[in-house]
Write a structure and sequence with these properties.
Layout lengths: L22 H8 L5 E2 L11 H9 L13 H11 L6 E4 L2 H12 L5 E5 L4 H9 L3 E5 L8 H7 L4 E7 L11 H10 L5 E5 L15 H8 L3 E6 L12 E4 L2 H10 L7 H12 L1 H24 L3 E2 L6 E5 L4 H10 L2 E2 L1 E3 L4 E8 L3 H15 L4
Parallel strand pairs: 1-11, 3-4, 3-5, 5-6, 6-7
Antiparallel strand pairs: 2-8, 7-8, 9-10, 10-13, 12-13
The structure holds pyridoxal-5'-phosphate.
């Protein structure tokens, strides 16, 4: 049946998000038993065990609606950062908060600004609101915050900076971020998406954003997620720290029960599991060094990463490499949706996962090491 009602005009510009292929779909489609996923920057250690113990206990409460504003989780996040709960908003993944920011602040014809190769959800979500997206070129695959600041005008409502950046893994320093915040119009909301911040531990000049910067700049929103270092991507929880008045607009338009009850309880516990986060970060940091080195020996150009994944120029077109590895039970991420046809993004896995990748590559690329 043909649809007689036209959807909003701006939706014609929107391409849907294309997520990393799931393990289950590869098992189903290719009949493979052992599949290693290095495509969505998930935690190869699995979820925080302490968080999962609480998750299991939450089972008995699943007939009840959760508390809509996630008050216990907000309070736990506030304690964790030593800030007031009014400065915290919890979302169904940080992805929901990106959406809420666009819905709350972008009228058609307003501008959203981001780097050319930044997390694609910023652009997709802004386009869904009919806004104009301005993309600023990067400098050596790093956000050029000086040029971004100059490009911000009174029409720029949102300026997105993923730090470290997905998909390039590069990061901006505290000095650069402060420079940006000091230069943009006060009417421009700077969204600093720190989904991978834990993996930048050890980078001395990485920004200390909460509470130092969030307390100082009312137009700054910092986003964090439970999906990466805490290993809870399947629960869908993330949060924003910002000025309470700014957050009140997001709170007004979020779904009434946006974060499910087991997720709210499990995330409170995850915040206490510092040992798990330390293990996750250590695994990603040691793995990314050795994997980068091994990939370079196999003909890849690999950029230094402050995250739990590597950005690499591949000796084969990215999609060809992706397909060939898929047949071997390994899922990586081609970057065609960014127009980067020769590049791939590879999440750092367990030692065994990384080894499986390297063995498959050896076979494919016929490299004697
Ligand atoms: C930079 C960045 N921001 C946000 C997200 C979304 O994370 P969440 O699972 O919290 O929605 C991702 C996920 O990959 C990401 O890479």
């Amino acid at each position: 049946m043909a649809l007689d009602t036209a959807p909003r005009r701006c939706l014609r510009e929107v391409t849907p998000y294309s997520p990393g292929k799931s393990i289950a779909s590869v098992q189903r489609e290719l009949g493979l038993k052992n599949v290693v996923k290095l495509a969505s920057n998930e935690n190869p250690l699995g979820p925080s065990p302490r968080a999962m113990a609480v998750y299991r206990k939450a089972e008995k409460l699943c007939s009840l609606y959760p508390e809509g504003a996630s008050p216990e989780l907000r309070a736990a996040i506030a304690r964790f950062h030593k800030i007031e709960p009014e400065r915290v908003l919890v979302g169904n993944g940080s992805d929901e908060i990106i959406r809420l920011l666009c819905e709350a602040f972008l009228d058609p014809e307003d501008e959203a600004l981001a780097s050319q190769f930044s997390f694609i959800r910023f652009k997709q979500q802004a386009l869904m609101m009919g806004a104009r997206v301005v993309e600023v070129p990067m400098a050596d695959w790093t956000h050029d915050l000086g040029t971004m600041a100059k490009a911000a005008s009174p029409r720029t409502k949102l300026l997105f900076v993923a730090n470290p950046n997905n998909p390039t893994g590069t990061y901006n320093t505290e000095e650069e971020v402060r420079g940006l915040l000091d230069s943009v119009p006060r009417s421009t909301i700077v969204v600093l998406d720190e989904a991978y911040c834990q993996f930048a531990a050890g980078c001395a000049d990485y920004p200390r954003s909460i509470p130092a910067l969030t307390g100082r700049y009312d137009n700054l929103v910092v986003l964090r997620t439970f999906s990466k270092a805490y290993g809870l991507a399947g629960l869908r929880a993330g949060y924003a720290v910002a000025d309470p008045e700014l957050l009140s607009w997001l709170d007004r338009i979020r779904m009434p029960f946006n974060v499910n009850l087991p997720a709210q309880l499990a995330c409170v516990e995850a915040l206490k599991d510092a040992a798990f986060v330390r293990r996750s970060v250590a695994l990603a940091q040691s793995g990314r060094e050795s994997l980068a080195q091994a990939l370079r020996e196999r003909g890849f150009t690999v950029w230094d990463s402050a995250a739990n994944f590597l950005f690499a120029r591949s000796p084969l077109p990215g999609r060809e490499l992706f397909k060939a590895l898929l047949a071997e039970g390994l899922i990586i991420r081609p970057l065609d949706e960014y127009g980067l046809h020769d590049f791939v993004r590879i999440s750092v896995g367990t030692r065994a996962g990384n080894k499986a990748l390297l063995q498959a590559l050896e076979k494919l690329l016929e490299v004697a090491v």
